[in-house]
Write a structure and sequence with these properties.
Helices cover about 65% and strands about 0% of the residues. With about 230 residues, the protein is mostly helical.
């Protein structure tokens, strides 16, 4: 089949992207092949080589689509600056809805391919850098507002937030009965509360918890444990 005319290129690329997404949703990255995408479109694999000359090119495009879909998903509106915004960002990442669960399954399925390819691994590394960088301004704001200690390293806290939430994502995907929505939210609230602590940067008059292992700001009420 000859390559598409220049005027048809963008429309055809949109069709290809939609087919790639359908394959990802059904089979994950393990099932993402030129043959599978061609079958989803009802075309030959030869046509797709005009867009994806290699499996790496196909996977790179799929990861870009996934990142765009993730960025465009519905999000919670942060109730206030600083730690409340950090909390909302963490909740936005978790598999708390069917759509977010499907999206996280696709992300996790991409790790195996990325770890086996140096270029894909570097691209994934850049994505996680952007994610950490997205948290940092809000942690800086929390420090300025006295919600966390004035000497806190917000770069390290951003890295800890990303590590925490992705660890929770994996556990929730593999053991959803043990990590239902209420448990995930409670764990986020506990993590955010532990980000706060006493010191010169603590806001005067801020409420504190009375736990024996630390005097942390109690910014969010701890929900009751889920019914068994």
């Amino acid at each position: 089949m000859p390559p598409p005319a220049p005027g048809d290129h963008e429309a055809r690329r949109k069709d290809v992207s939609e087919a790639v997404w359908r394959v990802l949703a059904a089979k994950g990255f393990g099932g993402l092949t030129l043959r599978a995408v061609a079958a989803a479109m009802g075309v030959s694999t030869g046509m797709l080589t005009h867009y994806f000359p290699s499996k790496r090119a196909l996977v790179t495009h799929a990861l870009d689509l996934l990142e765009q879909d993730t960025a465009g998903r519905p999000r919670r509106t942060p109730p206030a600056a600083g730690l409340p915004t950090v909390r909302a960002m963490l909740l936005n990442i978790l598999p708390l809805t069917p759509a977010d669960t499907a999206r996280n399954r696709i992300w996790v399925s991409s790790w195996d391919l990325s770890l086996a390819d140096e270029t894909l691994a570097a691209q994934q590394g850049d994505r996680y850098t952007r994610l950490r960088d997205g948290f940092r301004p809000h942690l800086d704001a929390a420090r300025g507002l006295g919600q966390i200690q004035s000497h806190a390293d917000t770069g390290q806290l951003a890295a800890a937030a990303v590590a925490f939430v992705h660890g929770l994502v994996v556990q929730a995907l593999f053991d959803p009965e043990r990590f239902p929505e209420a448990v995930q939210i409670a764990m986020v609230d506990g993590f955010v509360a532990r980000l706060a602590g006493p010191g010169p940067g603590t806001a005067p008059g801020a409420p504190r918890d009375t736990s024996p292992d630390g005097d942390h700001l109690q910014l969010f009420p701890t929900p009751p444990p889920p019914a068994v």
